[in-house]
Amino acid sequence: xxxxxxxxxxxxxxxxxxxxxxxxxxxxxxxxxxxxxxxxxxxxxxxxxxxxxxxxxxxxxxxxxxxxxxxxxxxxxxxxxxxxxxxxxxxxxxxxxxxxxxxxxxxxxxxxxxxxxxxxxxxxxxxxxxxxxxxxxxxxxxxxxxxxxxxxxxxxxxxxxxxxxxxxxxxxxxxxxxxxxxxxxxxxxxxxxxxxxxxxxxxxxxxxxxxxxxxxxxxxxxxxxxxxxxxxxxxxxxxxxxxxxxxxxxxxxxxxxxxxxxxxxxxxxxxxxxxxxxxxxxxxxxxxxxxxxxxxxxxxxxxxxxxxxxxxxxxxxxxxxxx
Amino acid sequence: xxxxxxxxxxxxxxxxxxxxxxxxxxxxxxxxxxxxxxxxxxxxxxxxxxxxxxxxxxxxxxxxxxxxxxxxxxxxxxxxxxxxxxxxxxxxxxxxxxxxxxxxxxxxxxxxxxxxxxxxxxxxxxxxxxxxxxxxxxxxxxxxxxxxxxxxxxxxxxxxxxxxxxxxxxxxxxxxxxxxxxxxxxxxxxxxxxxxxxxxxxxxxxxxxxxxxxxxxxxxxxxxxxxxxxxxxxxxxxxxxxxxxxxxxxxxxxxxxxxxxxxxxxxxxxxxxxxxxxxxxxxxxxxxxxxxxxxxxxxxxxxxxxxxxxxxxxxxxxxxxxx
Lengths: 323, 323
Prior knowledge:
CATH superfamily of the largest domain in chain A: Farnesyl Diphosphate Synthase
Keywords (chains A, B): Magnesium, Metal-binding, Transferase
Protein name (chains A, B): Polyprenyl synthetase family protein
Oligomer: homodimer
Helix content of chain A: over 70%
Cofactor (chains A, B): Mg(2+)
InterPro entries (chains A, B): Isoprenoid_synthase_dom_sf, Polyprenyl_synt, Polyprenyl_synt_CS
CATH class of the largest domain in chain A: Mainly Alpha
Number of domains of chain A: 2
GO molecular function, one term (chains A, B): prenyltransferase activity
């Protein structure tokens, strides 16, 4: 099986899904954000999860898209809350239209996600819906924690990991779990898929934090140092704030408190503080640990090795990402 | 059967429903808005709809609350969009907390509504969810149309009726339909309930527009003339804009265009224009017509007359409302 087959099936479903028609102000933003692209990791995970246990993975395509629509709904609403001007290099919905339209289009996107998710067989419908509801609530909890952290200076590493787990990873876990549920996998395998997805997801997000500081500018899609410039509370900064003492602590706080600064100078200075504190090594060790745990979870899944290989290859791509 | 039994069951369910716990900023606003009160018309309609066909109406209580939670989710988000400072005499969620919290709490409320709705029997789950999805999308469409109408001066009566049907009435129709579905009523009766709910709902909303102008200040909960002061595009104003000619037309537009005015004077003047155009009679005839159509729909429902009497009494209260 060539994994490109999954991507083609998803692309086809994306192009053929009707989100609604009138009023145009309500539905145009949905088509707009769904067409901005992205890696489509989540729906791909659902198809990979289903393929582990069945040749009839096509029946997972519409529910897989539900996960992608839900993900984009959270982006549309998060962008309002974060007052973000750009998403994937294009104007965000609230910038291109306005806040009210972004609120209401997002609401109807969430409804659309539920409608796509209805396309599972009746015996598993209640379980799928119940798990999706729990996941969706957790994603909202993660976003609220993220906003709460903005005004706090005492966020611990454990709190940060819990936040990214809720905001990002549980949906990756659900995407895999959903594939397993649709393919009627055994309960233990479904749970291993979910946990593996969560662990890989945490590693994935921590790698994002690492690449912001130590990524190769030629490969990293975003500006290297963007998080440092914005004082964003990433794993790197939280770890540095916990570890720094004496002069280094004073210097780090001084950079965090400056309102006027040369961006390149700040990135260089804060990166040097990270270097002295060994934050890169701490982060790399944590990332490796979460990825290893995720692979151990996948190891426990009862499926044909050849099929599992596709999932493992996919996970390896996430591990080795440079952008 | 004393209808107070239904209200007690709902109140009990309201008090025992857990919406979530942490972070508090996410879940406190849900408890806040759900405790602001209100007539609880929608969940009551679900229970009345179920009781038509079964003694086991208690199994409709949790799904009934789903409709009330969904309704309050729409209020929370609409209040942001309308920048409304008060809801039922208390600060709105975005005023008491902030816009971001109102967006995100609303999102998780919608998820909560879906979770409560899951409490129906498996054979009807897909149908219930599918109908709820359609209704929820229509409510969003209605809100978008309402916002679009604010900046238009050529809204027709037909467009206005369609807007209030979507924004308000389809949810009343769904509330009754849901009761019928849960009680496993025949398809024809379920459809008559839905259509009856929609027609009564349109009459109910038009009566709201009428009472704003011709209500008894001693009985009407809100300020009489509030819609006139705000130039709100109600049935009354749309009808007057369609009917007015010559000097009356000039005078009406003059009042609509003034930014400085004495409120009582404007209410008196516009009401006199409505009087001269016979808008009250036109509105009363339309309201009667929708209510009559609703009662004709209910007539067609196949249920014991004694049970149907409870629904008819409830609908009569809506017809005869003075507040």
